[in-house]
Amino acid sequence: MRELGQCPPLVLASEIRSLKAALVPVADGRSYLLQGGDCAESFSEFHANTIRDLYQVLLEMAVALAHGGLPVVLVGRIAGQFAKPRSAATEQVDGIELTTYRGDIINAAAADMVARRPDPRRMLKAYHQSAVTLNLLRALAESEFVSPAALGRRHALYLDALGLNDADRPGSDESMPWLHALKLFTSHEALLLPYEQALTRQDSASGRWYDCSAHMLWIGDRTRDPAGAHVEFCRGIDNPIGLKCGPTMTPDDLCRVLDVLDPQREPGRMTLIVRMGAEAVLAKLPPLIEAIRREGRRVIWSCDPMHGNTVKASNGYKTRDVKTVGSELERFFIVHRSMGTVAGGLHLEMTGKNVTECTGGIQSIDEDSLASRYHTHCDPRLNGLQAAEMAHRAADLIRNAV
Ligand code: PEP
Ligand code: CO
């Protein structure tokens, strides 16, 4: 922690403020939040192409959403998404009890006692990998990569791959100048507090405290206790904060945690990332919306259609089906439309790579194909085409909502 505390911040307070400002119009439906990336970044899957491919798909998704009629705020689950919450502290592997794998920033995934021992030096490695990742993202953002020509070309390729018709083809991306200045902000779960604390700095200009490990941090569904350490930490930083809202959250839980995290009711501060599952969302979301309305709060409602829809395939793989993911997204829009509120964002676990971790989609990935390219270190991610498909779906739903 001492060594990390002396390292340069990964992002600047001024950038964090500009993300917060960009989130203000998302809350009332003038802009759309797209947040996506790995479930868990890892030390072994660290390649320039992986980063480039994720950025590339996210950009294509932003173009698709822009054709839905809204400018996009782009936030990656990247450059710091290393720590994973686990439901159990230990697991049995071949009759031996092992500490669970908690993400590369804490221990190693290999099934032996030595690998599973937490090692604080991993925090430094995660920091340096995040710095290099950000360096590449910042360079790409200044390059040909985000030129109107490249964006248009990529969009056309995806439309072909997804079998979408010509009517969706943009005449010219020149009509969306904001697209070419699109910045990819970074985010991760604020789970490993020693890491977050060491990268928290006081901004000399404003005197405020910012967690400079990422632009946006979120609180997981397992660590949202208003009296717990994670909420206490996030209360003290000025970054935009995401809050995962799972099926066990009551309206009262939500109000109490927001009183702690956002006492000033600051626009752009809170994004509620709803992950109820396709089955539960119709029943569980309206009472939360009602509570926010009663309190007169302004928040961003974002849909995470991944975490409530994880299933075990018959061959043992943890997977998610594109159809179920799409149906939670659609129901999320239905609820908001019926309540007169705004479905403001989409939160996905995804990669630009052509992995086979989630079933379904345009490639009709079935359970038998899961084994061929199942690379995730934690939860199953949508591959590039499946993620793009979801963005086009969201764009359609936005078009119907506005
Ligand atoms: C995650 O986003 O990777 C995660 C663990 O989510 P949740 O806290 O919603 O389960
Ligand atoms: Co996950």
Describe this protein's structure:
The chain is of the alpha/beta class and 402 residues long. It has one domain: TIM Barrel (Alpha-Beta Barrel). Helix content is 38%, strand content 15%. The chain contains twelve helices and 14 strands. Strands 1-2-5-8-9-10-11-14 form an eight-stranded parallel barrel, surrounded by seven helices. It is globular. The structure holds phosphoenolpyruvate (PEP) and cobalt (II) ion. Phosphoenolpyruvate binds at residues 39, 85, 189, 220-222, 244, 246, 275, 307.
Offer a few descriptive terms:
TIM Barrel, 8-stranded parallel beta barrel, alpha/beta, single chain, binds phosphoenolpyruvate, 402 residues, two-stranded antiparallel ribbon, binds cobalt (II) ion, 14 strands
Helix and strand layout, with pairings?
Blueprint: H1 2-5, H2 13-27, E1 32-37, H3 48-67, E2 72-77, E3 90-93, E4 96-99, H4 121-141, H5 148-162, H6 177-180, E5 184-189, H7 193-198, E6 200-202, E7 209-211, E8 216-219, H8 229-235, E9 241-245, H9 251-261, E10 270-274, H10 281-295, E11 300-303, E12 311-312, E13 318-319, H11 322-339, E14 345-349, H12 384-401
Parallel strand pairs: 1-2, 1-14, 2-5, 5-8, 8-9, 9-10, 10-11, 11-14
Antiparallel strand pairs: 3-4, 6-7, 12-13
The chain binds phosphoenolpyruvate and cobalt (II) ion.
Compact summary:
The protein is of the alpha/beta class and 402 residues long. 38% of the residues lie in helices and 15% in strands.
